Amino acid sequence: LSNATAVLRGLIYLLVGQQPSFISHVRKKHEHAGKQLFEDGNAWEALSKILAAMLDDPSLDGAILIVNALDECKTNRHQLLDFAKPSRVKWIVSSRNWQDIEEKLYNIKQKVRLHLELNKDSISKAVNTYFRHKVDQLAYDKKYDKEIRQAIKTHLTSNSDSTFLWVALV
Length: 170
Hints:
It holds the Pfam family NPHP3_N. The protein has 8 helices and 2 strands.
């Protein structure tokens, strides 16, 4: 999702899926604004109020919201980070270590930071193990010989940049 409004829409959708009674928070705003609630220039304001109401709902207990690849959020990324700060829920945010994101996250009191680039060797080993498993599974299912199996492993290893997602998608 390339903008913060789309991230909010996605989080709202997922929360309603997990807690169907939360649709009432959406209906209140939707009855007034209609479809434009999700699409016009004021969508961020409306959706952030809806999500805030959901997160403040007493029936929400122990929620964890995950935002993956925040660095790929090109528009209003800082608004999203500001929104996440004062919250009863736990947020897991993954991102490249970009300075603007680091600065926004710096003052958050309760946080745990994992620097994956510092553990690149361990991650690379885990990805390679995953590769071997997936290639072996594919070779077994398709009855590939050793030569084709090795060609697939070589291709995946050289193109993945040590990421699980790339291999999972391919």
